[in-house]
Queue: 4 jobs
Job 1
Amino acid sequence: MREYKQQLTVLVVTISLMCSCVSKKPAAKYVSAPDYNQRIAVEEPYYKKRANGFGITVGVALPVGGAVAGYFASPFKYQDGDQRKTSRVGGAVAGALVGAGIAYFAGRIAGYGKEVEVKEVTEWIRKANPEYRYLKGANNNFTIIHPSIEQNYTVKNITDAKDFKLMFPNSLYTNNVVLSGINNLSRTELPVLIETFPFEQSTEQAKIKYIISSLTFDDAISAARRYTVNYDVESYLLNLIKNVDNGIKFLEFYPNTSYRKIAVLNAFKESNQTKQDWIKLQTAFGNDIYLTKSDFANVSDNVKQNYYYGMYELSNPGTVDKFDEFNAQYSWLSYSYKKNDMLSFYWDIVNRSYSSGMIVIEQFKEILANPVYENLTITDVDIKSIMEEKFKEEATKNIFIRSKHIIGSQNKEWETWKQSQYTAGMVSEYGAIQFIVYGEVENTSKFALPIEIAAGGSLTQTTRLTGQGNFMNALVNFAGMLGAPTTQVELIAAETGRCFYPAIPSRGKIFYAILLDFGEGVTKTGINVFDLLKASSELSITHDTVGLRFSSIVPTQEQLEKQNTWLQFAHQGLPSSELVDFIRNEAVRQEIWKIRHEEYKERMRETMQRAASDIDPDAVSIPSNYKIVDWLGNEVSNEWIPELGDDPYKRIRWEEGGKVIQGIIRKNRHHDNFYYQWDGSSGYRYKTEKDAIDALYVKGKYDKLRKIGKD
C-alpha cells in the first residue's frame, strides 16, 4: 500500500511539473508577405501546445531518474530455469520504463500537440513577433503592421490613407502622407482623403486638385461650392465656360464678377446653340452681351462665327434693308467664313420675302451691286455656290418619289405556257436581262430644281414546282416538306441605274423611268413532265430601292435620248426574246398551240369512236364533245393534248343521253396489256387497247361492264 501511495505521489507531482513545462506556440493557416507599407494579413490564427525547455528536461530526467532509482532499490528478481536470480540492471531498466511512461502520460494530460483558439489578438501578435502591431480586423482575420514604416508610408489608394490614420493618428509624418495621396489618388478619392485628414497643411492642395481636375464645368462649379480654397477658382471656371448654360451658372456663382464680357465671349465657344439660348444669355448679362472689336483680340474664328450667328438671331432682320443695317453694325467682325454666312442669311431673308422662285433668284443676285458689301468682294462664283447649297436643301425637303413600279420583259407565249397543258419537255427565253423601274416624282418647292434619280436592285431567280390536278398537287405539297416547291436565290448583287432631269418644274410632277441592265442570259425556262409536273424558273428584281438628290450635272443629248427610250418602255413594255421549244428546236407561238390542240382532240375522238365501233357495231358513235380530265376526273386546260399513241395515259370524258362517261386507260409499262379504272374502282386488265376503250364506253352507256377479252 505504501508503494502504491509513493507511486501515485510521484505521478501527481510529475503531471504538475509537466503542465508547467507546456507552452503555446503561435501559428496560422495563412500569413501573407509584407506589402509596400509593411502590412501582413493573418487568417485563422491559433496556438499549438508544445513542451518548453524545462518540459523537455523533465521528460528526459524522468526515465533517467527511474533507472537510477530502480538500480538502487530492491534487486530485480527473475526465474532462470530451476534457479531464482536477482539483478540490479533489471531494476534500472524497469525504473527507466516506468519513468518514461510517467513522462508520456503526464505530457498527454498537459496537452502536447493540441491546437488552441486565439482569444486575444494582441497576445498572439506579441508571441508571434513582438515587433509588429495590430492594425485592424477580427480574431480570425486581421492585419498587422510594422511601426517602422511610419516615416516612409505611401498612399496608393484610399485604404492606405485610412490605415495610416488608424495606426498613426498623431504622426509627425501625416502631411507627407496627404501629399502622397494627392499625387496618387483619383479625383473621386480625394474627398475621402480630405475628410480623413481635414486639418493638415497639404489638405488645401487636395481641395484645389479636386476642383481643377474636374472633367466638366458642372463638376468644377460643384467642387468650388464644396470647398473654399486660397486659389483663383474664378479664373479657372471662367476658362471652362463653353456655352450659354455654363456662362449663366458662372454668373450665378460670381454675381459681382469683373469678367462678365469674357464670360459672354466664352459662352459662344460651342456651335449649334439656338436662338432661345442667346435670349437666355441676353437676359442674364444684359447689355454686356453686345461686344466690340476690342473684345475679340486673339479670339478663334469659331467663336467669331458663333457670335455673328447669335447676333443675327437676336437682331432678327426681316427685310433686306434691316439686314444691311445689321451687317453695317458688325462690319468690323471678320473671320474666314463670314462671306458665305452672310450670303446664306441674305438668301434666307429674300426667300422668305417672295413666293416666286424666279423673283427670289433675281433679288438675291442684286447683292452684287449693294455697296454695303463692297468690302467682302462678292463674285458670281460666290452667288452660284450659295444657290447650289440652298437648292440642295430645297431638294431634300421638297422633292418626293410618289410611286415606284418594276416591270421586266413580258412574253405572252411564256404566260400561256405556264397556264396550259403542253408536253414539250423544255422551253426557254434567252436574251437581255433588263428591268424598268418607273414612277412619279413631285416637286413641292417654289424653285425648278435639277435632280438625279438612282434606282437599284438585286437579280433574283425564283423557281416553282407545280402539279396538274389535285393528286399531283398533293404530291408537290408533300415534297415541299423536304424542299420548298418555291425557292428564291439571289444571283447578282444590286445593279444601279441613273437618270438626270435638268429641271423639275416648281410645284409640278414628272414621270421617271430607269433601265436596270444585267446583261445577256436565260431569263425564263420551264420543264413539263407529261403534263403531270411543271417546273419554271424566272428572274425578278428584289431589294429594290429608288433615291434622289440635287444634281448640277447637265445630261448629254445621248443620255436624254436614252431616258426617253426608257419612258417608252415604261409605257409599252420591254421588248422580249422568243420562247424556244428545245425539244422541237423552234420558236413557240400561241396560235400553233391552238391548232395542234384541235388536231389532237379530233384524232383522239376518231380513235375512240373507231375502237368502240369495232367492239360493238350497235353502239352509238362517241360524240365529239368529250373533254380532257385529270386523274380525279377534274377538267384540265385543253390548249394542247398528246397524240393518242404516244401517251401512256388516256383520260376521257363525255356526255351522252344525260350520262357522263369518263375513265382512265393506262398502258402497263412492264407488260404489254391494258387496264381500265372507273371512278376509283379496281382495275380490269385487257389484252388490247381496243378492249379497254370498248369496256369504258359500254360501261358508260349501259351502266354495266362487258368483259370482252378480259384476262
Job 2
Amino acid sequence: MGSPLSAELLNPTGGSLPEEESSGPAFAQEFVNDPSGDESFDRAAPSGDGSESDASDDGGSSRPDRDIDDSPVTDDEADEPVPEEDEEDDDDGGEDEAAQEAEAESQTEEVVGKDIMLVNASEPEELRIAVMDDKNVLNELYVDTISRSSVLGNIYKGRVVNVEPSIGAAFVDFGIGRNGFLHASDVLAAYGDPAFELTDLPLAKAGEDEGPEAVRAVVDDPDEKRESPPQNGGSRRDRKSIADLLHRGAEVVVQVTKDGIGLKGPTLTTYISIPGRSLVLMPSLPRCGVSRKISDERERRRLKRLLNELVPDQNIGFIVRTAGANRTRMELQRDLDYLLNLWEVFKKRLVQSRAPVLMYEESDLCTTTMRDIFSPHIGRVVVDSEPVYKRMREFCERIMPRYADRVELWNEPTPIFHRYGAEAEFQKLFLRKVTLANGSSLVFDQAEALVAIDVNSGKARQESDLEETAYRTNMEAIPEIVRQIRLRDLGGIIVVDFIDMMESRHRRTVEKSFRDAMRNDRARIKIGRISQFGLLEMTRQRLGPGLQRSLFQPCQSCGGGGYAKTPEAMSLSVLRELTAAVRKKGFATLEVALHPDAMHYLTNVKREHLYNLEDRSGKNIIVVGDQRLGPGEVRYRYLTGDGRETKPVSG
C-alpha cells in the first residue's frame, strides 16, 4: 500500500515536510517527554503485574528480559523533582501576552553560539556527528553505521505470536524477522476490552495509574484541574494481566522503544508518540502538559495557556518539550500543524494496512540531531557531504529559518574531524585508561551487565594530606567521568570506584557534585550513595548498543575477554588434549597447528613429553606453527597413513 508514513509526507502549507524523525541516538533520548521530573527509576520497581524481578544486564530492569526503562525518554526527564507550581490561575490573564511573545522571541534571538557541530558524512558506511565547545572539547557524539540498522522509533502494526503470563509479556511479530518484547505495563488497557477494535485506537486513553512512568506522570499532572477521574483509572494492583490484555493472533500497534541488543529482541510499547521540534504528540494522553524541566513558573503558565488555546481537540495529548521553552505562538502552531497532519495520515493507514507492516518510519541521524540537539548555543554546523548539507539546510529553512545560515558546507581537503581536533578525541574514547591533566587517571572495564570505573591518583599530589589528596582527586575526576559515560554511551549498572575518603563531608560533597554533573545527561539515571569502600553505584538507561559495541566486534582469540593464554599455558593445554586424543582409533598421524609462540614452547620445552606420547600410542604427532591463528587458538587434523583426513573414533 505504498511507503510507510514518514516525517516527509505532509506540510500544513502544502508540499512535503522536512525529514524530522530518525532512528539515531538523539531521537531515542528525547522521543517522549516525562514531565514527572523524577530523579531516577528504581532498579527493581514493581512491574506491570505488581511483581518484582532482578536487575537486568542493562541497569536493573523491573521487568524480566527487559532493560532499565523501555519507555522512550528525553532530556526532559530531570534528575531531581522540580517543586510543584501553583495551579494555573484563570485570572492570571493580566499579563500582556504580546509582551511575553516578544520576550520569548528576544530570548531566542540573543544567544550567540560558540559551540560547533561537525557532521562527518563523507563515507556512506559510517556517519559521525560531534559537538565541540569553544575550547575544542568533545561534548556530544553520535555514530551510525550502515552495518547496524536501527528500527528505533518506528511504528508498526504487528501480530501477537506468543503470550507469556509467567513474565507478564507478549512477543509480537512486526515484520523485521525478530519478535519484539511487549510488557504488560506497556499495553493500553483498552486492548483488554472484548469490544475493542484496532480502529478504535485513536480514542483509547491512558488511565491515572496506567502505562509507563512518563505517561502516568502526565496524566497525574498536579497543574491540571479535573472534574472527573481519568478513564481506565484504578490501582496498579487491579491492572489486568498480559493474558487478559492480549491473545495470540491479536493485532497491535507498537512502537520500538529500544533496539535489540545481542540475543534480546527489540522492546515495544503501545503508547505511541511522535515528536516535533517543540512538541510531542502522544495520542493516548487525555490532556496536554509542559515538561517539568521547564522550571520557570511564568514560562510554564504561558506555554500551558498557549497549548490549551492551540490544540483543537482536547482528547489528544501534546507535551511541550524542553526545546519549546521561549517559543512563540507561531512556532508552536507550525509544529502543532505538522504533527496533526502526520496523525491524520497515520489514522487512515491504520484502517487500510495489514499486519505486520511498517506504518511510520524514522529518518536519518542528521535531521534528528538538528531537531533534538541543535540549540542557539551552536554557532556553526559544518557538513562535509553536499547531499547531507542540502538536506540539513532545507530542514533549517523550513523549521527554524533564523538558524539556516549557520549550516555550512566543508570544502577543504583536510578531513573535518582532523581539522577541529575531534578525531583525536574520538579515538581516545576506545582507550581503557584515560589520563587527566592533574596526573590522575580513569580506568574503564565494561562487562555485559556492569561497567566499572576506577579512579587512580597516579601522579596527582596536590596536597600533603592523604585525605585532602583523595578528595581533590575525586572532585577533579568527576567532570571527565560524566563526559566519558555520555560519549561512550555506557549503560546498565555503573560502579565508580572513587579513592577512599574517611570524612563523611567529603563523601557527601563528591556525591552532590557527581549528581549535579549528571544533571544534563539525557538518559534516565539513578545514583546511589558512596559506600564505606568508596564505591558509588548508579544505573543509566541504555540508549543504544554503546559506542564500543557499534564499532568493535569481540576478539576471536580471547573471546572478548581481553586476555589470551600465555604460550606456556597454551602449550600445556594442548599437551593434555593430545594425551586424550592419541587414545582414539582410525588415524595414523595427528597434526596440531597453533600460534608460533606456543609451538616453539611445545616443541622445545615439552619435546620429551611428545616423544613419550608417540612411543606409548604408536601414532605420529606433528606440531606446526600458524601465524594466522591467535594466541588462544588451536586446530587438530587426524590423518590416515596415506595422508587423507579422517574422523577418529573413541578407543
Job 3
Amino acid sequence: MKKGLHIGAMGIIIIAYCAWIISRICQMPINADAACMILEAEDILAGNLFLKDWSLTGITFLTTDLPYYIIGTAIAGVSLNAYRIAVSLMFLVMLGCAVLLCLYGSKRKWFSFAIFAGMGLFPTFYALSNTFVHTAVFSFFFLTVLLVLRTEENPSRRNFTVLGILVALAVCGDGLALVLITLPLLALCLFRVVKKPVLLAVCTIGGTVAGLLLQKLYLLFGADMNSLLHSEFIAPAQLVDNVLLYIEYVLRLLNAYFFEKEVFSLKTAFYAVKILLFLLTCGVMYRSIRNACKKEATDLPSLFTGIGFGLMTLILWLTTFSVNITTGRYIAFLPLLMGILLAKWAEGFPLFQKPLPIAAAVLLSFCLAATNALPKDREPVPENVLSRMATFLEEEGLTSGYAAFWDSTSITVYSEGHVNVRAVMYSGQALRPREWFCKKSWYDEEANFVLIKNEDSVKEEDTYRYNGIFNSGIDSGYRYEVTRENVEKFLGSPTKTKEFENYTILIYDTIQLEKSWL
C-alpha cells in the first residue's frame, strides 16, 4: 500500500513537472530553422523518405532531431503544436538521459538528485528556447558517458556493440557528435583510463565511420548537403568579442546575467552562487583532465564531459561558429552537465557526509531551482510579430510570397500551411532562392509578394536588447540584403504596397526569381 502511494505521488510530480515544461515551451515563438524541420518532416510523412529535391544545411538531423519533428508533425500537422510537441519531447528525453547519468552508481540517489535539481531541473527561458535543435545529440552525449561506465563494469561484447551503434547514430544525425562524442572517446583511449582502450577505440572509429557512411548513403538517394555556412578561424582581434559573447551564453543559461542589475540584492547573491558553481564545475573537469594527463586516478564522467565541453568552448572562442547570442544553443546542455558533475562531486566530497552540510546543500539547491521556476524570477517571454503577420496575410489573400530567411517559413507554420512564404536572398544583381533548408520545387510556385522588414527596425535589431537577450547582427548578409531598394532594383516598382507593424509588403502581379542555382 505504502509503495503504491509512493509510486502514485511520484507519478503526479512527474506529470506536473512535464506540464510545467510544456507550458514554458508553448510560450516560445518558433524560428525559421525549426519551421523548416517541420516542413521537412511533413514531406517525409508524405512519402519523400529521402528528402529528394531538398537542400540541407550541412547537417541531416536524420537520426537525432528529425525523428522528434516527424512525431510532432504526425500528431499535429504543419502547425505550432508540432513544434511544441517536438521540442518538449527532445528536452524531456535529454533531461531523462542526464538524470540517469546523474544517478548511475550513486549510493545516495536522493542527495544526488537534489543537487542536480538546483542547476538542471528548471531551465531558463533562454536555455529552453535553444533546445529546438541539436538537443538529441546532447542526449546521445549523456548516454555515451553512461554506456562507457557500463562497459567499465561489464566489458562485454554486447555493451561495446551498443556503444558503437550509439556513436554511429549520433554521428549520422549531427556533426556535433564528432566533437562531443567521438573525440572524447578517443581521448579516453589515448589516456588509457579505460579497461579496454583498444576495443573502445575500434568501436568508436567503427561507429563514426559507419555513421558518416550511413549519412552519405542516405544523401545518394535524395537531398544534397549544400550549406551557406563556412566556419573559419577568427582573426586575433575578434577573440575578445567571442569570449565575451561566450560569457553571455553561460550567464544566460544559468540565469546569472548580472549586468545592468542591482549590486546589492538577494538575486545578485544567487547570481554569484551560480557563477561560483560554474567555476567549480570547470575546476572538476580540469582536475580530471589534469589527472588523466599525469596518469593518475580520474573520474570518467567529468573527464569525458570535460573534454567534450572544452572542445566545444574552444570552437566557440576561436572560430566564426560563434555569431550571436543564439549560438548558445551549442552548449544548451550546460545546466544539466553542471547538475550531473556537481552531484557526483558532492557525493564523494568528505564534507557532505555529515547531516548539517547535507541539509545546507539541499536547501541551497532548492533555492537555486526556485530562482528559475518562480514566475516573478523568470525572464519575460518575447512577443513574435510573425504569428500576427500570418493571420494578416491570409486575411488579405496573400498566400504565396518571399521574405528573408528568418521572416519566411515561420509564417508558413504559424498559418498551418495556408500561407507559404519562402526564403530568398539578394545576390547583388538578382533576387534568388536561399540555398538553405529549402525544397527546390517551392520556388516553382506562383508568388506575388515580398515581405520586407523596415530598415529602421533592422538597424534597431542589430543594437538592442530584446527582452534581455542581445541580438547582434542576426542573419546579417541575408536579412539586410532583402531590402526594398534591392527588391525594386530587380523586380521594379510594386503594383501595391501594404504596411503591417514594422514590415512592408511589396505586391506584384507575379514574381520571377533568378533560379540558375537550381
Job 4
Amino acid sequence: MNMLKKIVILLLLLIPIANAEIQISKNIYTTYNYGDKLSYDVSITENENLQGFLSSTLICERYSTDYYTIPLSLKQGRQDFSIPDLTLTETMSGNCRINVNVQDLERDMIEQKSLPEFSVKNDLTIDAFLNRQTFKPGETVILSGDVKNSRGDLLDSIPVLVTIDNSEGKTANINEKKFTLSFDLDKGIKSFEHKITLEVRDNGNIGEKTINFYITPIPIKLQNSYEKTEFLPGEKVEIETLLYDQADDKIDNNAIIKVYNPKNKLLTEGARKIIFNLEPDAMPGTYKVKTKDEKLNIESSFKVKELEKIDSEIQGKVLVLKNTGNVPYKDNIRVLLNGDTGFSKSVNIKPNEAKTINLAREILKSGDYFIKLITKQDTRSLGESTLTYEKSFGEKITGPITGSVVSVRDSYGYAPFYLVLIATIMAVILIAYQKNKKTTFLKNETDRKEGERYKQIVMARRENPQAHKRKFDIDDNEVSDFRRRILKDIKSTENNPVKSNQYSSREDYGYRAVKPNENKKNLFGMFD
C-alpha cells in the first residue's frame, strides 16, 4: 500500500501544470474624466498550449461589468493582445480598478492581473487672467486663460461661457488651447467690486471659475440734503452733502459746506455734514449754501421765515416787552388793569431789543393790580403787582394840568428823550436868531447906502446953492429955516458919529433913523 501511494505521487509530479504570466504594456493614469478612453495592451506568456478565455472586468464603487471577453488558443510562449478602449462614463464615477483574467474552457481561473486603481471625475480647471484689476467706467477689459482636465492636460475646442455680474453671458472659444475675450465696460457701471464667472461644460465634466475686478468711482453729482427748506429763528438746521457716482450711487465725500446769511456774511462752515442752531433773531430771508468737493461745486439755499414775537413780564412796577422775533414788532398793545380799566400803546421794537412801560404812571391811585396784556398774537396774564401812583413828567412841569404823559421807553429811562427835545428847541431858537440877525443887517446896509446918496446930494447943494435951486411954492423965510435945520443936523452927526449896530439919528448919512421903542419887545427881544 505504501508503495502504491508513492507511485501515485510520483505520477502527479510528472504531469505538467498550466500556468500563464500576464503583463500590461501601457501605463494607467490615476485620474480620468467622463468621456475619457481607457486603453492598454496585454501580453500573456504560457509554458504550454492552452485553450480558454481572456477577459477584462471593471470594478467601481457603484458599478461593475465584464466589458471584454475573447477565446484563447495559446501556444507555448508569449502572445500580445490589444484590448479595445473603454469609454468612462458618469456611472463609473469614483475609484475603479480593472482585472485581466485568463480562464480555461470551464471558466476556471488560470491567472489574474489587477491594474493600478484609478478615479473617474467630472472636474475641469479654468485659469483666467485680466489685463489689470482696476478699471474706470467705459474702459476695455481683456480676459484670457485656458482649461485643463483632471490630469492637468490642456483642453482645446470647447466653449467657455463668461458672465459679468450675473448679466447675459458671452462665449469665448478655446483655440490652440487658449481663449481670449475683450469687452467694454458700461459708462454707468456701478463702482467698486465686480465679478466675472467662467463656466465650462464638456461631456458631463464641469469647470467653474470666479475672478474679481474693481471699478474706480467717478464723482458725477453733488447735492445738499435738508430735512426741510424753511426754518424759524432758533430752529436746528442740518445740512448733509451727498456725492453720487456714474451709477447714481452715493459715495463718500469730504466736501466743504459754507453757509451765508442774506447779507452774504459767512455764518458757519464744516465738512460733509453740519448741524447748527439759528439765532433767535436770525435775519429773515434766503441763506446760501455753497458746497465744494475736489472737482464739483454747487450752490443751494434755504429760507428763514419772518417771526414776529414778543415776550413780556412784570418787573416791579415796569412792564418789560422784549422782541424775541427776527423782524421789528409793531403793534397797538392794550394793558388791562384788574380787567375793567386799561390803556393802549403803539410799540415798535427792534429784534432782540427790550422796551419798558412804567405802569405806576398809568394808574389813578395806588393799589394791587392784576395785569393782562393783549397783543395781536394772544392775550396773556402777567400776574398781580402792587403799584404806587407816580406823577408823570408832564404833571411835574405843568403842575395842575391833569392827565399823564406816558411813553414807551427802553431800560435807559426818559433822559435821552428829553435831551433830544431840549436840543431840538435850542436849534430852532438859534436858527430863528440867525435869520433875524441877517435880516436886520441887510436892512441897515440898505439904509446906509440910501443915506450916503442923500448926503452927496445935500453937500452938492451947499457948495452950489444956485445951481440946484428948487422952486417950491414957499417963501424965502421957510427956505432959510429948512436950510438951517438941515445944517444943524449934519453938524450934530459929524460931532457925534453913530457906533455900528446902534439905533440913533444918523445925520452923517443924510437921514434921521428912529430908534425903536425899547419897551416894545418882539419874539426875539431877549437877544437885543
